[in-house]
Amino acid sequence: MENQNRPKLSLKATPKKTAPKKRSKNRVKTAASGQKKHTPGNPAASADSRLIAFNILDAILKRQQMLEAAFASSDGFKALDGRDKGLVRLIVASCLRRHGQLSALLKPMISEQTAAPVQLVLKIGMTQLLFSDLSQHAATDTAVELVKKIGFERQSGLVNAVLRRVIREKDMLLAKTDICDNLPLEIKQRWQQNWGAEKTAKIAALMVQTPPLDITAASDSDTLAKKLDGTALNKTTIRCRFDGDIRNMPEYESGIWWVQDAAAALPVQLMGNVSGKNIWDLCAAPGGKTAQLIANGANVTAIDKEAVRMDRLRSNLRRLNMTANLKVADILDNSFEPTAKTGDIDIILLDAPCSATGTIRRRPDILVRDERPDLASLQDIQLQMLKKTLSWVKPDGQVFYATCSLEPEEGEEVIRIILHYNLAKLIPFTPDELGIFASSLAPEGWARILPDCLTDACLDSPEAALGNDGFFIARLAPIAA
Description:
The protein is of the alpha/beta class. Helices cover about 40% and strands about 15% of the residues. The protein has 20 helices and twelve strands. Strand 5 (about 280), helix 14 and strand 6 (about 300-305) form a beta-alpha-beta unit.
């Protein structure tokens, strides 16, 4: 059995031993894999990309790093060119999105003693064989080379045998699994209870797809949509076909658009005319809603408790040539109370911290977390934040409460508790206000946006079939004490 206590894997290929070795009859003969200059399209570049993808996946699965943090901490990934970065992102994201299915299919084909790194190589290979259009031989050969590079050369025969079986039995294997297998059992059961089995399957199917690139236009979305070869979903959001480094998109440097999912752009749209109003954007980073508010003429104060996240917001506003009053602060800290109560605030947007289950297709690392979010604790924080914001806004002001969550505990239940204790009154949305998200209007008057909301809207554009992020939005007015 292979040694389980191996040193930390390196991004460098394992040097080949010069001493000749006997080859077993079952060993796959592969091309020599000496190090070559890393240029797009050559086999060495492809192999290096898969090694980097392996290490990023290992950081996420074993060390529980968040997706973007794993990419950011990978020196190998930073050194790649745009094309190979795209390949690595695709491998990593696809493997995470399909991890439940991959694990279920792989389990009966290997022994329980198979080392975790070897299993991960197999999952990378299976991802490409089952869920991509990559050449079967390329997927198998690169997986065999990869398992050698990470120090498990003796397992190359196993990798070759399993992947060739996957090629032979592809249709049979896929018939044994279900799209909902990719959801952690707790999430699947909760969603089936809350939204029904059919809706859950539909959401799960959307979450394994690469999400569309939605951007928000500072103005004139129709003209910008033509320039970007995209589709204007409404007066604000453009859905683009671009797949690559967004810095290469037209008008990036001009700062007239920014990346933001169509559903995430809705809370600001629901505010109507905000020109000249004092608006606080709480938990504001990375700043998409802050930028929307500024573009619409509001006087914006953006607050986030993490300095690193605020630096990102500041950088985004700099590209957009926008300014706002930025504060790094914990709004639940009592020392912040005097500042908030003298803010003369017309509207507060509280995009509260949550489980983020509505963004799984963009953050598939959520699917492989060893620990699930504590919804009760998150709800307590959300309630504390909402109570405070209702006391800070003007008597005739409004608070918009939003979470990118599919859990009623972080949406409907929070608002019901606030209303039960007479801490606010709900100002219902109308279908006209919600526009393309009109089907999300609940009888109570809030918006429950499920990921298939745009799909169900039957818009003329086929791009709408790609769905949207999940969200909950409610509009509240304070009740005088």
